[in-house]
Amino acid sequence: MAKSKSISSHQNIEDLAFFGGSPTFSKPLHVGRPNIGNRERLLERINDALDRKWLSNDGPFVQELEQRFADYAGGKYCIAMCNGTISLEIAIRALDLQGEVIVPSFTFIATAHALQWQKITPVFCDIDPITHNIDPNSIEKLITPKTTGILGVHVWGRPCNIDLLEKIARKHDLKLAFDASHAVGCSHQGQTIGNFGEASIFSFHATKFFNTFEGGAVVTNNEQLAEKIRLMKNFGFGPGYDNVIYIGTNGKMNEISAAMGLTSLDSINDFIDINRQNYQQYRQKLSGIPGIKFTTYNENEKNNYQYIILEVDDRETKFTRDELVEILHAENVLARRYFFPGCHQMEPYRSYFPNTNLLLPETEKLTRKVLSLPTGTAVDINKINEICRIIQLVVKQGKKLRERLDRENSQKH
């Protein structure tokens, strides 16, 4: 593996690649680079599936993954599917959600689309600026006679205020479910995250620290709901042949994806250990830097440490989050904006609800601040130190950077 170029030459902002210097890294460092477990074990499983010639339709690897993941996530039942979005859509339909469902705008667009795709109106709720999760105190004023549910999102794997959400749902007779795409391996008050609400929906996309190439699952403690979801994800087929007893679609996970999931589960603790070490190193290097807020995890709970999240306050740094992204990209650090610009600012919701931004002040602020840095197996301690030195440099010379950026912008125009 090629060693990173030292940042020792980056003594001033003029040395940055953004201004014509050499990039710190010769190859791009990605956010969400796929983790690969024991490759030999994965190939053994794939060969087993090929030898059996049972590649789909609830094969033995899918059945094993469902059992093992249910145990890991803390729920009684797990239904594995082809991806997280289909998992969301089927869970929403199985819960008989209709009319309006309250959901945060600060989430991946699939959370909203899974509702709108089924002619359910996503009613966007503001977030708590501290947790980045849906703000329970903003929910009740959004409830109307058409409201049938609340869909919370455990952003960064940090659980929503589950207790308060459950209280609101009971009070107003609403269904409560959770998009737990970020929350594999996380806990709330000592209980793993699959224990809460009517259902928890997971994504096993390749960019997640636990992946099945592409996949997802619904975890629930409700046996009737689990059986309904099983029917719906397989065209409504009941026991026996040619026995369709319910309306359904094709949401099945294949055996090759399940083989990857089982191999990922074998190594999941190793993946989390790497994430934790990276998180601790980033925290040590970046905490206390003016204008850079480092998002932390509750050490009394289980965390997967999957995301390294900063908030950039341009009033202190003198540069914006987007300018920092450009600077990092030039150094081959492919930092990302999450979840910019918010679902409410994307189509069709921007056209459907043109004034929603006025109701979501905290969401609007956060989407302009949040920055995600590379972690997982994409980096090591040395690379993290180099990334942090870049950020330390631009913050330290923020005033000088601002002057240089303004001067170049004026020359362009």
TrEMBL record:
SUPFAM superfamilies named among the record's database cross-references: PLP-dependent transferases (SSF53383)
Query: Residue positions of the PTM N6-(pyridoxal phosphate)lysine?
Result: 208
Q: Any keyword Transferase?
A: yes
Q: Transferase as a keyword?
A: yes
Q: Which Gene3D superfamilies match?
A: Aspartate Aminotransferase, domain 1, Type I PLP-dependent aspartate aminotransferase-like (Major domain)
Q: Which UniProt keywords apply?
A: Aminotransferase, Pyridoxal phosphate, Transferase
Whose protein is this, by species?
A: Lusitaniella coriacea LEGE 07157
In this protein, the active site sits at 208
Similarity remark:
Belongs to the DegT/DnrJ/EryC1 family.
GO BP, one annotated term: polysaccharide biosynthetic process
Q: Which GO terms describe its molecular function?
A: pyridoxal phosphate binding; transaminase activity
Protein name, per record: Aminotransferase class I/II-fold pyridoxal phosphate-dependent enzyme
Annotated transmembrane regions? none
